[in-house]
Specification:
The structure is a single chain. The chain is built from 15 helices and no strands. By secondary structure, it is mostly helical. Helix 8 runs antiparallel to helix 10 and helix 8 runs parallel beside helix 11.
Length: 478
């Protein structure tokens, strides 16, 4: 009996030691951390959203919320005859000017995503730094929109006495102006982050290659007929044009935002400052065409990549049309600035001599001719790109022509929205030219065109959502 008890106790002691060893091993594993194997995205029920797509969706949400609010307030004020001078309408209009960055950013993000997919053959997205810059731009737009909604609360009305385009201003006390100045500072810090992010994305697009994106093999794009090793295909005309128009867009809106803030924060802004603000507002109306023109270029690029996934080549005359559109829109911006300066001060401000008046009239005629030429160039180039997108066909290889895929619903809807958008803005251009001579026509057509312009403001972001869904679907299918 004693022997059995001793054996049982020895066995229990051995078991306790084993338990202690296992507990120590478990404690060590907990302290060191448990390494989990990364989940394969292809096995999940929902393919994970890329950073680019998340940013596009966030910007789209902000855009639609603000512009839907503007439309609802506009309908309410028109129904009850309150006019456009209500505090809510003015504040929302300022927020709409801020969130108007969103379509241009989305086009840039999608262009970067498409270039990364092309270089890696749909195996990887942009570099981590590029994705971080996209997130910085997205959050900076949110902060700017929030600040644009907050500043007028402390500043009173966002308008000023003495300008036909502005209303009477309730001048706040010193404390309110101090808080408004602080909020404006925060807003411009966010704007600085936006511009830094935009520059980072643009530079990273230029630096994209198989090495930075981790694609294999590294010499995937090498041309054996050249001495140097090519690690990426040449930057497409669509991407180069998009980046150029993005820089133009942000430059104009930066200047306009600075002008607005200067007028808001000054108790009595000078006529010169008000004139500069009006000139920049005129330039901003012209550069509003840039997002839709870039969307057209992206639709054409997406169509080309669908037909030829490796190179996405398009005819040279289409590339020339894209560059012509960029140059024409840039010329229209400078023509709008010059025209506004001539209307509000002449060539030599304060000089009313006959010579100065003659120079001003001559400059005005030259500016008007230039505006018509640049307008013809911008809309003509857009028309050529639309026609080329519809006419693109697969290129013959070794005497055989591959089957050309049909035009996707995304491209069809995108082209329809582009045509609708440009048609309304072209009608506004002709209306502006004729309204100075026929006031009855201006009263009859003006309200209808303004309502149409407000409606087509949704077209850029809708088209971008369709393009984003198409890009995501193509990436998953690959």
């Amino acid at each position: 009996n004693y022997t059995n008890v001793a054996g049982m106790l020895a066995g229990m002691s051995l078991d306790l030691r084993k338990i202690d060893e296992r507990m120590a091993a478990m404690e060590k594993d907990v302290q060191d951390g448990v390494k989990l194997e990364a989940e394969d995205p292809t096995t999940s029920l929902i393919f994970p959203l890329s950073v680019c797509m998340r940013c596009v969706l966030m910007l789209a949400a902000q855009y639609f919320i603000i512009y839907s609010s503007v439309a609802l307030v506009k309908a309410f004020t028109d129904l009850f005859g309150l006019g456009d001078s209500t505090m809510c309408a003015v504040v929302l209009q300022q927020a709409a000017e801020t969130v108007f960055y969103a379509p241009m950013l989305c086009v840039l993000f999608l262009g970067a995503q498409l270039r990364a997919f092309q270089i890696t053959q749909d195996k990887a997205g942009p570099q981590p730094l590029t994705e971080l810059a996209m997130q910085a731009c997205t959050w900076s737009v949110f902060v700017q929109t929030f600040m644009a909604l907050s500043v007028p609360i402390f500043l009173g009305r966002t308008a000023f006495r003495g300008s036909k385009d502005r209303l009477d201003l309730e001048v706040p006390g010193q404390e309110g102006r101090a808080v408004a100045g602080l909020l404006t500072l925060i807003r411009y810090c966010a704007m600085g982050m936006l511009y830094v992010g935009f520059i980072v994305v643009s530079v990273q697009v230029l630096l994209m290659d198989t090495r930075s994106l981790g694609a294999e093999p590294l010499d995937l794009w090498d041309n054996p007929t050249t001495v140097a090793v090519e690690y990426a295909p040449p930057l497409s005309a669509a991407m180069a044009s998009t980046m150029s128009l993005t820089m133009l867009f942000f430059a104009v809106y930066l200047a306009l935002a600075v002008g607005h803030s200067c007028v808001e924060l000054l108790v009595v802004p000078s006529e010169t400052l008000l004139g500069i603000e009006r000139a920049l507002a005129s330039a901003a109306k012209v550069v509003d065409l840039a997002p839709m023109l870039c969307i057209l270029f992206v639709v054409a690029r997406l169509r080309a990549l669908t037909i030829d996934p490796k190179t996405g080549s398009i005819p040279h005359w289409v590339e020339l049309s894209m560059y012509t559109g960029v140059v024409s829109l840039t010329g229209l911006v400078f023509a709008a600035l010059l025209r506004a300066m001539l209307e509000h001060g002449g060539v030599i401000p304060g000089d009313q001599t006959q010579l100065a008046s003659s120079i001003t009239k001559t400059a005005a005629r030259i500016t008007a001719i230039a505006r018509w030429i640049f307008t013809l160039g911008a809309y003509g180039s857009a028309l050529l790109v639309i026609a080329a997108t519809l006419a693109l066909r697969a290129v013959e290889v070794d005497g055989r022509r591959p089957v050309t895929p049909p035009l996707s619903p995304t491209s069809q809807c995108g082209l329809f929205m582009v045509i609708l958008y440009f048609a309304i803005y072209l009608a506004l251009f002709f209306f502006e030219a004729q309204s100075r001579e026929n006031l009855e026509l201006a009263e009859l057509v003006g309200a209808a065109l303004q309502s149409a312009e407000s409606a087509v403001k949704f077209c850029p972001m809708l088209a971008l959502l369709f393009i984003s869904a198409r890009v995501r679907a193509l990436h998953i299918s690959e």
